[in-house]
Amino acid sequence: MTDDTPRARVGFIGLGSQGGPMARRIVEESYPLTLWARRRASTEGFADTAAVVAGSPAELGAVSDLVCLCVVADADVEDVLLRPDGVLAGMAPGGVVVIHSTIRPDTCRHIADEAAKRDVSVVDAPVSGGGGAAAERRLLVMAGGEDADVERCRPVFETFADPVIHLGPLGSGQLTKLLNNFVFTAQVGLALDTFAFAERLGMDRAAIAQVLGHGSGGSRAAAILSASGFDTAGLRQARPLLLKDVDIMRDVARTAEVTEPARLAQLAAHTLSLLNAPPTP
């Protein structure tokens, strides 16, 4: 994008711990940004920016070329897009809806069918890395959709992400994110067992974490656990989202009549059980 190219007008809905930093990066890169949230408090943190607040999703859609959603679940995505005063009710033909939420690929395709009636395109672009990574412009974006639509969105994605990976047609980003979270969930349980095993052997968990950070036995899950000081509170808080994504992944596999890796499924179930148990003193 050259300096004299008009910047896309961006709408953003879903200003939580992940979406808030993403939206801030967009407005800090001088994109015209419009926000909407159910709770006024969610937008108050943008009072020091040029972002404006819409009165409804439809009002946001009417002033946006590209609308990003970072809400929690399928029902939330469908609500803000498809309700009578939803984004699609206000969005002009030629716009693009970007789904950063982690939801079912079939939900993305259903939304795309509805959006096509208004000549609006849909890109699914779930992310991985957390709010801190967004603030540092190093989120991972897993995109699915038509080539032209993804490329149109790429400059906005690059305000908060590196890399941005286009994985194929609509739904590909969601499928990849679900697989990523399935594997991560399994690795959390493995990391918890590893550090507990090391401690029972009289080994220093922090020292073992350093070794795993540089050795072939390491994982992102082990690194996250170590960085937290082996405090599982954050992972326990994330358990409902991990459970949601594991359930969706397994349902997608069943629908496709693909046998899931048994060991991976067992480890994921083990993790969810560990995170549901009272923390060890």
From TrEMBL:
Pfam family, one: NAD_binding_2
One example GO MF annotation: NADP binding
Active-site residues (renumbered): 177
InterPro entries cross-referenced by the UniProt entry: 3-OH-isobutyrate_DH-rel_CS (IPR002204), 6-PGluconate_DH-like_C_sf (IPR008927), 6PGD_dom2 (IPR013328), 6PGDH_NADP-bd (IPR006115), HIBADH-like_NADP-bd (IPR029154), HIBADH-related (IPR015815), NAD(P)-bd_dom_sf (IPR036291)
Domain named 3-hydroxyisobutyrate dehydrogenase-like NAD-binding: residues: 171-271
Swiss-Prot/TrEMBL keywords: NAD, Oxidoreductase
Family label: Belongs to the HIBADH-related family.
PANTHER family linked: 3-HYDROXYISOBUTYRATE DEHYDROGENASE-LIKE 1, MITOCHONDRIAL-RELATED
Protein name (Swiss-Prot/TrEMBL): 6-phosphogluconate dehydrogenase
Organism of derivation: Streptomyces flaveus
